[in-house]
Structure formats: structure tokens, C-alpha cells
Amino acid sequence: MRSHKEGKHYKEAILRAGELAAKHGGSALVLNLVGELQKAMHRDSALVSFAAAAKLAPNCIDTAVSHASMLFESERYVEAQVELLRALAISDPVDPAEHNVGYGLCSDLTSAERLRDARARARNAMESFTTFICEEFVPTESIRVLDAIKLGREVAATAYDLAKGLATSFQFSGRAQFLRAYVYLKRVRGFDPAIDKRPFLRRTSRMLQDSVIAFRRSLVIALFHAKLLFVLGEYADAERACHRALAIESPDDPKEHDLPPGSVSGEEYDDRVSCVKNQLRTLIKKIIFVGASYSRLPSYEKEDSLMSVKVKPLLELCNATDKSLAKTITDALRFFKKNNSWSFWICPLSARCDGREFVDTPSLWKHLCSKHPERLWGKLESILGPKLCESERDCFALEWITFSQDQDQHDIFRLVKMDGMFDSLIRRAYVGAEPNLVEMRTDKCREGAEILEGIKRRLGALPADISSSQFDDARSGIQNMWLNFLKISVLDYREFMYPVAKLKKGMTDNPNIVGHISDSKIDSIFDDAPSAYGCNVSEGHDSDPSDANKMGTTRKQNLKPLHSNRTLKADGDHQESELCFEDGNSMVKPPNDTEGKEMEIDEIVANVERNELELLVANLLRKWQTQTAIEVSLLSTKKPLTKTCLSIK
Ligand SMILES: [Zn+2]
């Protein structure tokens, strides 16, 4: 070793080491030395030496790490990992100096210090190893696996085995776990259209279940899982999965797990995160819409063509789950029946009048003057004039719900503007918290009281000369503050009714549909149309298909290209398929038939892209209202057209 270090001939060193090895074949120290000298030039021989040394000195951490490093150099990653894990797990290690000459050359460390350093080296080696596997090996292998799949069925099956091997060997790699399910799904999608894919999709979903937990900050894994649940018709679970993912505080960078690697677009971390989050939100919209469609189907009544929720069962449900929500709904109804309005003003000034609802601004003003008299109120009234009771109610966004009664005088909530409802639900999903009437009222009271204090201060300092420009300025300032006050002091019950839509959906979720899941539903959910999301999801990689032959460095497979390259699409002519379903009268048809209709609605929704969803909803609602046949043509971003024909008898 010294002759090697001192720059003497490598040949000489290796010769001497060889002599030593011949003399002391059973010495780990000599074998380690030989391995060290060989590793630069004779990798295979070095590996043999280190392997023999590791066998002779199983409790030597340094020897195990050297052995592992050599395995790694030889691209035998699985074995390298096993050896590194063994190195880390040695419970009664021997002094590294016993088996490694390097220590004799330059060391005045104690045995304990040498052991400490050896342990640190083992940990570092493991860390570098996992980094390499996650950041280089698995991504490269993923591309090779995905390329291989494009080559055809048999190759695809082999590729799946390789993906499975990666997942089993490198459990710390989220992408490897994801790849296994991803590839499995690709394979399932290549099955004959006549084969029921449901059990296979279930299996894919189960495959990913542990990864969703183990890599719980991964947005791409969560999205993929949620999509699977959606395709399976498990909408409640799918929605939960989306909400959970959206609520992740600092998600993993999508580029750590995305498949194909690099497919989530975005220069910066934030761009990539928002790209995936947008897809999650789109999926939520689809889920909501499917839920809404289902809920309509069985409850269709001729005279009530809109979606509706009977208040009584709704309240019973709320009482069992959320009493304060039940109270809010009861209060809202009472208020609406009395005033024909959902919005009201509150007095911010006193705890005594907390809870009082003023149906308009004049009554709020009257209340302020009588219950909280101030000498400046008169002044305020005089300078504001008619503006005092001006009120702008900006409640367009809340117009998705209204109230009516059916012919038997049952109270009913009607969901009239689906896009408003979507927005409401999506906003909640984004904020992550459900609105709370009590909290919001408290906040508004505090804010309102602050504004009133400010108004009083400005009134007190009002210039005496009412013809001066200072007076005008002050007056318009006060006017703005007052308008702001009125705006802040208004509350709208509908703001808190969004759980109605949610419950409505929950009550009528239809998770147990049986029968075929169409290829088109699966395709539309998993073949994300790039422009629709503002994301550049690229499926392809331009790498040479012959790369597939290099797949799996340690498990070389002979992947022959197959003549058939048929994987995803069942047939080419479904670009302009007509999905027809009947409305209205179909409700009285046997359940099997209804089921068929539901599947078709599924498909329609699945096919609809984000920007078109609202349009579809609007069209559907108009159709439901007018009961006339209309045709909805939906521009697909990928295909020329997905034409959806909606005809009604
Ligand atoms: Zn009051």
C-alpha cells in the first residue's frame, strides 16, 4: 500500500499484494489491500477480493462499505444496497484497523473514534446511494421501461416485471413505487376492450395505496391514485384524496416522482406544484359534477327538472353529523321565508345586539341611532344624505342555491347554478376550511366597529367651512368608509350553505356501479390534455427504442420489438363517438338501463376538459329546464371533436 501511495509502480504494488494474498489467503486485511489496489484497473478482481474480505470479516463496517462500493461500481445496485444495509446493521463491529491497512499509515485515533468514523462513512455511503437511485437510476430506468411498453404487449409484460423489480428493490423511491402502478395500468389499458378492466384497476389502486401513505407529500402519486378512484367510480374517496393532496403544506417537488420523468411542466417548484394542483381541482370538479348527475337521475321528477334537495331529510342528516350546520340551515330558512332574502346586515357595536339581523340598511341605521346613539350621527346623516342607505349586494357568486316548495308544500333547496356551486366548492377546497358563521360574524363585527370608530374620528375633525375643498375631500372619504362599513357588515346565509351541495352529493354517491369501465373513460382521465391544464404533459420520450435493450442494468432482458404497437386506444374511430343518453323518461326504465346511462354520463364528464365543464353544465341545465333536445359539442383539445348528443323524448 505504501509503495502504491508513494507513487511507485502500480505493478510492483499489486505484485507484492498478490504475494501477500497468496501467503495469507485467509486474511481480510490482505484482501482489502488487494481490493484497494485493484479497484482502479481491475474492477472485477477487486470485487472478488472485497467480497472475500467481507466474508472473512463480517463484523467489519469498513470492509462491508468497501464491498458495497465495489458492487455499486459494478452497477449491482440491489446487492450494493443489501451490503450497505448489512454494514449499518452490524451490532458488534470490530476495530476497522484490524482489517484495513490504511489505518496503520496515518492514524493516531482510538478504536472508538475509528468505529465512529466507520459508522459515519457507512451512513454517508447509504445516503449517496439512495440519492443516486432516486435521482438518476430510477428516472433512467423509468424512461426505459416506458419506452419498452411502447414496443408492444410481450415487451410491456417484461417491462412490468422490471418496474415491479425496481419497486421491490428500492422501496425508498417514490417514483419506483409509482412506476409499478403506472406501468401496470398501461398494461391493463392495452387489454382487449372486451375484458372487464375493473378488477385490474382495483388492483392498480391497491398497489398504490401504501405509497400514498409512505409518500404522503407527493402530489403526483396522490393525483394518480385519485384518478384511479374516479375511474373506478369511487367518487367520495377520489374527492377525499384530492382534498388531502391540496391540503399538503409543503408538497414534494412533482419532478421527484412524475412519470414520465419530467412530464410535469414548470420552471420553478411553485409552477410545478400549481400545475398538479390544477389537475387535482379539475378532478374535483368532475367528481362534483358526476355526483350531481347521479343525484339527479334517481330523483328526477317531471315538475322539478332542476337538482333539488328536500330540506327535511337534509336537516335530519345534518343533525346527526353537524348540529351547528343544521342550525345555520334552519336559521337561513326562517330568515328567507320571512324576508325573501338570504343576506342580512349585522350591528357591529354591541354584544347585546349580536345575533340581530337587519334585512336592509335603513333598519340597520335606525338601530344604530336608537341603540347606540352618538352626537355625530346627525352630522353623518347630513353629509351622506341618500348615500347613507345605499347598499350593494355582491352575491352573484352565491346564486347557485335557492329555495322553493314542491307541490306537497315540502321545503326544497334548489341548486340552480352549477358553476356557482362548483366555484363555491372549489374555493372551499382551496381554503381548506369550511366557513363558520359565528367566526365570520365575530370578524365582521370587529372590522365594522373599527371602521365606525374611524368615521367618528373624521367626523370630529370635519372642517367647518362646508364650501371648502378640504370639506369635500373629508366628506368623500367618509362616504367611502361608510360604504365599506355597509359592505363589511353584510352576511349571506348562502355562504354557509355550501355543505348542502356536498351533502347532497354525499347522500347520493353511487360507488357501487358494476359493469364495464369503458376505455374511453380511462383514456380521458389518464391522457391529460396538455393545453387544458396549462401543463405540458408529454407522454413520449425521444430516446432510441433500442435503449430498451439496455433496460435493467443488473437484470438485462432481451426485449424484442413486437409488430403490434397497440396499447391505449380501443379503436381509432372513437374520436367522434356519440354518447347519447336520454333524459326524463329513462328514469322509469329498469335499473340496468339506468346504470348504463350513468356510465355514459361518467364518460361524458371524464371527457370534458376543465374549461368546458362549466359550459357543459350550463348546457345540461338549460336542457333540463327547457326539456328540448340540444346538442352539445365539446371541443376536445386533442381530438377534433368529442360530440355529445343529448336527446330527450
Ligand atoms: Zn347594535
From TrEMBL:
SUPFAM superfamilies cross-referenced by the UniProt entry: TPR-like
Name of a matching Pfam family: DUF629
Gene3D superfamilies: Tetratricopeptide repeat domain
Ranges for domain DUF629: 303-383
Chain spans, region Disordered: 536-556
Membrane-spanning ranges: none
Name assigned to this protein: DUF629 domain-containing protein
Organism expressing this protein natively: Oryza brachyantha
